[in-house]
Design brief:
- There is one protein chain.
- The chain is an alpha+beta fold and about 575 residues long.
- The chain has three domains: about 45-110, no CATH class; about 115-130 and about 145-285, no CATH class; about 340-550, no CATH class.
- The protein is built from nine helices and 29 strands.
- It has helices at about 1-35, 45-55, 100-105, 345-350, 400-405, 420-430, 440-445, 525-530, 535-540, and strands spanning about 60, 65-70, 70-85, 85-100, 110-115, 120-125, 150-165, 170-185, 195-210, 210-225, 225-240, 245-265, 275-285, 290-300, 305-315, 320-325, 335-345, 360, 360-370, 385-395, 450-460, 465-475, 480-485, 490-500, 505-515, 520, 525, 545, 550.
- The protein has a 25-stranded mixed β-sheet that branches. Strands 26-27 form a two-stranded antiparallel ribbon.
- Strand 24 (about 490-500) and strand 25 (about 505-515) form a beta hairpin.
- It is elongated.
- It starts with a helix and ends in a 13-residue tail after the last strand.
Length: about 575
């Protein structure tokens, strides 16, 4: 039987294969001929009309269109999409890939999408409506949407601009790239952000806003049904510009791990509707001469409230630790920070506000601040809290303060108020010592070296006004104290007085300073002109406060009078 029928059966199979091969070759040849002769550009107006009808926007193709079969796809150049309010998107090149077989059933299944140099402009009007929304929005409430999937999405050299007309804020993303695989949207009628899944990566050369700039933003990203993970998200540099003060703050080499990010309500302000956990690591922070390194913290964000607990950093030659919170859940944001720096280097502290090395040794810094925003008012006006700097057995370079103060009654070397820079320069930085010319007092003396046995500079701040709660220092034989207020909002001294004390805490000599930080007044003389000025009249004035062994106590804080 095998001998009789085997060979004819084999020949039959070969014939069938030849027939199918010939048919396939004919189809391929037909497809090639079709591709070579078919002019998709003749259908341009129909394609534009179909795209416009599907999106509710005005779609225009100004460049050439192309068609390929292996793999099957459509390409188009110079595409513009607009609404009545103006252009929303322009594309240099668009490439779409699709499966060929569904087309035979008059079905289109796009599998890949590539966009080259897209320029997208999103505008949010004062009434909260976006420029890409249709004027007559059809209700889809209760109607299930179709599922959508895409094997691959790529975007090259994109530009995105977002403008909020209500606030006037504009954000720009420049030169960004995106690569996504296995994109799925379970219900296109629902909130896409909440039901999308994909894996991919993105990078952006620059992000610009009014007062800040981000450079070299990169991250892999994974989304599973609206839950996002960015691990790690890296930023080359973040720069913040304070145009009023003319200062720049720069953060370098930032690494974030963002886990389980979800968006509760995409129609509202994003920061108020996101939640996630993660970690933050910043290699360095620079603001003028201030240097902070290795800033690290776990991060938790719950619907507009950002928690950095605990927060650590290297600052002033020591390890700083504390916590920070930014509450952006309401209209006016609230910021809170608590910081403790033990055994800081006084020399490093002075370097941070660009002054001469005057005091050496170790000390402790404590800060607890709350800053409340309120409209466009000065941010300083919403500041409350405390600053405190303390140190013992500190070294004074270039001068012996005991020697200077012991002959103070007849000396004309400096004004007493110049010593107030010791207390103000510590926790409050450079803002309030511009008129003091911090360090000049020492160049007016005859040199030497001295010791501060005890030092306290403790301030309480309310509505941006710092009150000297306990500001005093003691040498081996003398004690000096400061009282008064610093208005950080208006930048003025408010009845600030520096006094040389006796053993009862009464002022043997005292001198006041008032007026703007930049040009303060000592009586009728500015601080700049006062250095080297006469002070002999101070002794006569001081006698008025000492009568019959009784006096008005000027200082009763924690710094004790040294023994003679």
């Amino acid at each position: 039987m095998a001998g009789q029928y085997g060979i004819p059966l084999m020949n039959a199979k070969k014939k069938v294969l030849l027939i199918f091969g010939a048919a396939a070759a004919a189809l391929v040849l037909a497809a090639v001929i079709f591709a070579l002769t078919f002019d998709i550009n003749s259908y341009r107006s129909r394609i534009e009309a179909a795209a416009s009808g599907a999106t509710g926007l005005e779609v225009r193709i100004d460049g050439k269109m192309g068609l390929s079969f292996f793999p099957f796809g459509v390409s188009a150049k110079d595409i513009h999409i607009a609404n009545k309010g103006g252009e929303i998107l322009s594309l240099e090149i668009l490439k779409l890939g699709a499966e060929l077989m569904p087309l035979l059933k008059k079905q289109l299944k796009v599998t890949r999408c590539e966009l080259v140099k897209p320029a997208l402009t999103i505008v949010k009007n004062a009434d909260g409506k976006y420029n890409f929304e249709s004027t007559e929005k059809k209700s889809t409430k209760g109607q299930p949407g179709a599922a959508f999937s895409l094997n691959e999405l790529k975007l090259f050299k994109g530009v995105l601009a977002y403008l909020d007309k209500k606030t006037g804020e504009k954000t720009e993303f420049k030169d960004f790239n995106l690569a996504i695989k296995d994109l799925t949207i379970e219900d296109t009628a629902a909130d896409i952000m909440k039901n999308v899944s994909f894996t991919g990566s993105f990078d952006c050369a620059e992000v610009l806003q009014k007062d800040f700039r981000i450079e070299n933003l990169k991250a892999p990203v994974k989304a599973v049904k609206g839950i996002y993970n960015f691990e790690p998200l890296t930023i080359g540099a973040l720069l913040f510009f304070d145009k009023k003060a003319g200062e720049k703050t720069e953060l370098k080499e930032i690494s974030l791990a963002i886990k389980d990010l979800s968006v509760v309500d995409t129609s509202g302000v994003i920061i108020k509707n996101i939640s996630f956990t993660g970690t933050m690591d910043c290699k360095e922070v620079r603001k003028k001469d201030l240097k902070i390194d290795n800033v690290k913290s776990p991060v938790k964000v719950v619907r507009g409230v950002i928690y950095l607990i605990p927060l650590t950093m290297d600052i002033f030659g020591a390890k700083g630790e504390g916590d920070a919170t930014a509450d952006k859940s309401e209209v006016d944001a609230v910021y809170r920070i608590n910081l403790k720096v033990l055994k800081l280097d006084f020399a490093k502290l002075q370097e941070s506000f660009g002054t001469k090395k005057v005091i050496g040794g170790k000390g402790d810094l404590y800060a607890s601040l709350t800053i409340k925003e309120e409209g466009s008012r000065n941010l300083m006006r919403g500041m409350d809290g405390t600053f405190s700097l303390r140190g013992d057995n500190l070294v004074m370079y270039t001068m012996d303060l005991d020697k200077v103060l012991s002959s103070y009654e007849t000396s004309q070397e400096f004004n007493l108020v110049d010593l107030g820079a010791f207390f103000i320069a510590g926790p409050l930085g450079t803002a309030a010592i511009k008129g003091y010319r911090y360090g000049d007092v020492y160049s007016q003396t005859r040199g030497g070296r001295g010791t501060i046995t005890q030092f306290i500079s403790h301030w309480k701040i309310k509505d941006g006004v710092a009150d000297a709660a306990d500001c005093a220092l003691a040498t081996r034989h003398n004690r000096v104290a400061l009282k008064g207020k610093l208005n950080l909002v208006s930048g003025r001294y408010d009845n600030v007085i520096v006094a040389l004390l006796d053993e009862k805490g009464c002022a043997k000599f005292k001198q006041g300073i008032s007026g703007p930080f930049g040009s303060p007044q000592i009586g009728a003389v500015s601080a700049v002109e006062s250095l080297g000025g006469p002070i002999s009249s101070l002794y006569r004035k001081a006698k008025r406060f000492v009568r019959g062994g009784k006096c008005e106590v000027f200082y009763s804080g924690a710094v004790h009078q040294p023994s003679k």
